[in-house]
Amino acid sequence: MRTLDDIYDEYEFLDGDDRYRLLIDLGRELEPMPDALKTDATLVRGCSASVWVYPLERGGADLHFLADSNAAITKGIVALVLAAVQDQPAGSVATADIAALLDRFDLKRQLSSNRTQGVPNMIALVRDHAARIAGTAV
Fold it and tell me: Which among 72, 94, 113, 117 is least surrounded, fewest beta carbons within 10 Å?
């Protein structure tokens, strides 16, 4: 997965339609998420599309997330959220200000409110998973 900085370096030079294509491409780059992990516990509430996020512990306390969505743009948005925290320690993810890290993308201005309404819920689910894992690892 590309870093958030690498994604932004490309994003800032694109116009609206190309930004949509970049988000769709980011979604396509996500690792496949097995259907068995798409459960009520991994479902992000409040999104206009179905979104699932599942944390895996890797390398000690580092978290690696799997995610999927049934909508291409939404899948790209969740990929952007994950790029901010992928493969970092659970404690860091739990306390990260992911919204601030995404501010420079100005998603609310670039995308419709239907597409961005679930972003805070995606962030909350990622942080909640991380906090739960960090709490059990201590």
Answer: 113
